[in-house]
Amino acid sequence: SDDDVKTWLRQNSNPVWHPVAWIGLSPQDSVVAPDLHVQGFLGLGVIDASVFPSQISGHPCVVVIAMAERASDMIK
């Protein structure tokens, strides 16, 4: 039954919190610009999940890896 499934899920699932979206990424009024540089600081960038605009539905690891790949292209 639906109640049995809900009970099983409550007893067997473990929510995991992934800290993301702490500093924000935006062209204006944010700490980090779209080029991943900290606004107002020369040569300082942020390449991690803190620049996500909000929580994503899955594990953030793949998105962080993709962002790092993109950042490496921007640095070259």
UniProtKB/TrEMBL annotation:
<dbReference type="InterPro" id="IPR007867">
    <property type="entry name" value="GMC_OxRtase_C"/>
</dbReference>
<dbReference type="Pfam" id="PF05199">
    <property type="entry name" value="GMC_oxred_C"/>
</dbReference>
<protein>
    <recommendedName>
        <fullName>Glucose-methanol-choline oxidoreductase C-terminal domain-containing protein</fullName>
    </recommendedName>
</protein>
<feature type="domain" description="Glucose-methanol-choline oxidoreductase C-terminal">
    <location>
        <begin position="2"/>
        <end position="68"/>
    </location>
</feature>
<dbReference type="InterPro" id="IPR036188">
    <property type="entry name" value="FAD/NAD-bd_sf"/>
</dbReference>
<comment type="similarity">
    <text>Belongs to the GMC oxidoreductase family.</text>
</comment>
<dbReference type="GO" id="GO:0016614">
    <property type="term" value="F:oxidoreductase activity, acting on CH-OH group of donors"/>
</dbReference>
<dbReference type="InterPro" id="IPR012132">
    <property type="entry name" value="GMC_OxRdtase"/>
</dbReference>
<dbReference type="GO" id="GO:0050660">
    <property type="term" value="F:flavin adenine dinucleotide binding"/>
</dbReference>
